[in-house]
Amino acid sequence: MIHKRIESRLKNRKGFTLIELLVVMVILGMLAALVGPQIFGKVGKGKQSAARTQIEMLGQALDSYRLDVGKYPSTSEGLNALVTNPGAQGWDGPYLKKALPNDPWGKPYQYQSPGSHGDYDLLSYGGDGAAGGEGENKDVNSWE
Question: Is the whole-model pTM more than 0.70?
Fold first, then answer.
């Protein structure tokens, strides 16, 4: 009698079988394989866009510096001249509301004045930190 009660309780238990769990895990794995690359592609585009926006912001700060001082900071003074006075007459900064930002990949922006493409060149080498590249590794610069 007790044996029959235990047996009927085991039969009435509801749960997932091992096969059902494996099927669900395979389906979830396939979804992750399809959706994952699309999401990571958007992250790279977002970083490129953020770098362009920061370069624009730094360009505006450099223009304000030039209006006050009469010239852009030299390559040796660098972008730090936007935050701390390098000893320039007419400096009325700081020209950035916050500290000097790194690019979205955590590396400092490259600055040169006079530049090869204008009064100054300002660029980020992208995700790989090297010149050239495509996608997230593409350079972002002030002259394009």
Answer: no
